[in-house]
Amino acid sequence: MKINMPTLLHKIKDSFFEVKPETCIRFATQYLEVRPYDIDVRYMRAKSYRNIGEFDKAIEDLEFNIETLESGQIKNIEQLKDTFTELFYIYYHSNQYIDALKLLPIIYDNKFVETNSVYLKELIMKKQLRLPIEKFIGPTESYLENQIMDYNERRALGYVGLHSKSDIDINKKSKFADNLDLEYLFNIIKNNLNHNNKANIDEAMEVHYFTIPNVGIYKNDICNYIKVRVVPNTKNIISIFPITALKYEEAQNLDYDRDKLFKKEKVKEKRISQIDKFNKRYNR
Questions:
Q1: What is the Cα–Cα distance from 269 to 161, expressed in whole angstroms?
Q2: C-alpha closest to that of 243 among 176, 190, 195, 160
Q3: How much helix, strand and coil, in percent to the nearest 5, is found in the chain?
Q4: What pLDDT sits at residue 81?
Q5: CA–CA separation, 150 vs 32, rounded Å?
Q6: Is the N end or the C end of the chain the one with fewer CB atoms within 10 Å?
Q7: Is the dihedral of CA 109, 112, 116, 119 positive or negative?
Q8: CA dist., res. 72 & res. 93, Å (int)
Q9: DSSP secondary-structure letter at 213?
Q10: Are the CB atoms for 43 and 78 separated by under 8 Å?
């Protein structure tokens, strides 16, 4: 049966932009058997592999594209940029720090991505690999840099508390429920962190999502989830804040005591005085 390549390409693009990775992979694989040097289709397949956590297969496709692009067969600077940044992300996310650091000169020299985000990733990788950090000259006013280099839990709690201030503008920043015990929440999250469940998104910090009904408010919407940022491969929580919805990620369940989290106090039984007892007994 003859393959209709234009139709197949249309299906690949549709499934890619609709974020249907398995469908995109199936159609792209079929397409690449006929046209193996189509770097755009191979890039879409790599992104789709990455979306389902098949990082080794994604790396294979991206490295193929880089070799093809650098060989001079195809001139596409924008695609080369996208391919390098995607490969850097996968190396970083999957803790392949040595390989990620090798790409840094290319990333920096060509200004492929926003510099501050890459700089934070560089700090984290070099600190965890115990490599020299030439650029960091502390102390600094940067909350993130300080917490990466010398973590302070009390400072983190204070930073999380910015989302519980009474004068917060909920049209600009989400706010925790008024009766929420932040310190209890902080400790519960720390005890529930599982690095295998981190979200597959491109951020310098490791990201986790948890479900907590009515945990806060943003604009006119109730927040039923929290987003947690952690220094990768640690339990050093950087930030916690309520969010209204998830895009494509899944939220984890959190094992907690709701009465403690929302400071539900037991109603104390009113003690009856001796006089009240006397009056009650004799109907006075």
A1: 33
A2: 176
A3: 50, 10, 40
A4: 86
A5: 48
A6: N
A7: negative
A8: 30
A9: E
A10: no
Phi, psi of 132, deg, nearest 5: -60, 140
Rg of the chain taking only CA atoms, in angstroms: 26
What is the number of other CB atoms lying within 10 angstroms of the CB of residue 99? Answer: 14
pTM of the model: 0.84
pLDDT digits (tens, 9 = 90+) for 175-207: 999 999 999 999 999 999 999 999 999 999 999
Phi-psi region of 53 (alpha: psi -120 to 50; beta: other; left: phi over 0): left
Contacts made by residues 94-99, CB under 8 angstroms, sequence distance 24+: 94/55, 95/232, 95/233, 97/125, 97/128, 97/129, 98/129
Task: Give residue for tokens 């970083």.
Answer: 92
Q: Residue 270's pLDDT band (boundaries 50, 70, 90)?
A: very low
- Residue 6 carries which side chain, given as an amino acid letter? P
Q: Which amino acid is at 9?
A: L
Secondary structure class of 226 (helix, strand, coil): strand
| Three-class secondary structure of residue 1 per DSSP | coil
CA distance 100 to 247: 27
Contact predicate 186/240, CB 8 Å: yes
Kindly give the residue spans of alpha helices, DSSP state H, lying in 71-152.
77-93, 97-109, 115-128, 143-149
| Choice among 44-53, 58-67, 107-116, 169-178 with the minimum mean pLDDT | 107-116
pLDDT tens digit sequence for 229-244: 999 999 999 999 999 9
CB 182 within 8 A of CB 160: yes
The rounded distance, in Å, linking the Cα atoms of 16 and 247 is 15
